[in-house]
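FAQ

Q: What does a record look like?
A: Structure on top, sequence underneath. For example:
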């Protein structure tokens, strides 16, 4: 399963998303958009927003942290 998480270091919701995915044994790739302008642009194109976290689960794009939305996208 491909899960991408676009984050910034100071974002508490980003930390929550990563913790939730780890606790549920969901492997993911994290992109720090504060350090990588190309990934920042990629996150913006996917979400059409500048907020973080942006979570891409098999092409379903979520902005923010919602356990229910993540579970739905993971089909739990």
């Amino acid at each position: 399963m491909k899960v991408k998480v676009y984050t910034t270091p100071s974002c508490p919701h980003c930390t929550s998303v990563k913790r939730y995915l780890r606790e549920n044994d969901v492997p993911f790739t994290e992109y720090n958009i504060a350090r990588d302008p190309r990934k920042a642009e990629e996150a913006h194109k996917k979400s059409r927003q500048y907020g973080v976290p942006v979570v891409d689960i098999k092409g379903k794009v979520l902005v923010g942290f919602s356990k229910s939305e993540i579970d739905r996208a993971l089909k739990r």
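Q: Is there anything notable about this one?
A: The chain has a mean pLDDT of 96.
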